[in-house]
Structures are given as C-alpha cells and as structure tokens.
Specification:
Layout: H1 11-20, E1 25-28, E2 31-34, H2 40-57, E3 61-65, E4 81-85, E5 105-109, H3 116-128, E6 133-138, E7 143-147, E8 154-156, E9 161-162, E10 172-173, H4 174-177
Parallel strand pairs: 5-6
Antiparallel strand pairs: 1-2, 3-4, 4-5, 6-7, 7-8, 9-10
Amino acid sequence: MLASTTKKLTKVEFWALADASDRTYELIDGVAVPKMSPKYFHARAARRILNILEEWSRDRGRAEIEWAFDLRQDFTPVPDLIYVSFDRLSESWNENTACPVPPELAVEIISPGQTFGQMTQKAGYYLTGGVLQVWVVDPEAKSVTVFYPDRAPKTYMENSIITDDLFPGLSVEIDRLL
C-alpha cells in the first residue's frame, strides 16, 4: 500500500494507482495523496449531512459520499460528500466513473490531522474549478464554514441554519449535523 507519491502523475497513472488500490486517493497538485481514515465524529457528520441532502435532493439531483471528480489535469479531489443536480448531470447518466462535471456542492469534514487552513485551500481549488459552494465542517468546533465563488465565506455555529438561494428549500440546522 502506497502512503503517497512523490513524483507528479498523469491522470492515466493516477487512475491506474487508484483503481489498483484498496485505499482512496486524491490527486492534489499531481501527487497521489491518500484520504484520511475517518473517525466517529467525521462519520456521524457525513451520515447526517448525507441524510439531509438525500431527502432534499430527491427529483433534483444526486447526493453522494466520496465521489471523485476531475477539476484540473493535476487535481482530482474526493470530497466527503457532493451534490450534483440533474441540470448539470442528467438523471439518466449511469456510469461507474468519476463525476464528469463539477458538483454544485462539495462538503469536506475536518478529520484529526487535518487543519482548517488545508480545507480552506481545497475549497479555493474547488471554487476555481467550477464548484458553486463548499462546506467545510468542523465537528470539534461544531461549525460549518460556507465558501462561495463571489463573496467572503460565512461560518455557521450551533443554533444556526444554513439556507441559500442556490439550494431552494434546503434548510440545514447546524445542531442536526454535529
């Protein structure tokens, strides 16, 4: 099992490595980096967010866990969760591949060993690659910071509710997530 690569990989080399491994890798700046192994708070937050997004997204799109998508030649992230609408990826699409389009929403949950700064950098990559909104969830701080392509990020704490015109009818209570 490979910890991470040191040489820059092409997309073909990256997918060959990822497909041959029992580990999940992301391609970050051309380097294959293994995903962190989630702990309880991370897993609980992921499940809760997925349940909320799945219920809301019925007949609108797909909410999925750890589904890779290609943003650039040297960047194939695997967010903890994504939402992609049927407007971006038709309901009839059904292939066992990475998501072929940037999702509207990418969710990253901070795990032990990761920093908010690392997630902020990743959020910037997502936004410049066409993702419309990024949520960085911090289970320890009990907060969600929402990153936008056209304005400053906003942090939601306990007792707050995330709503946005981008996701009509979606109302996420922070207390339900963490």
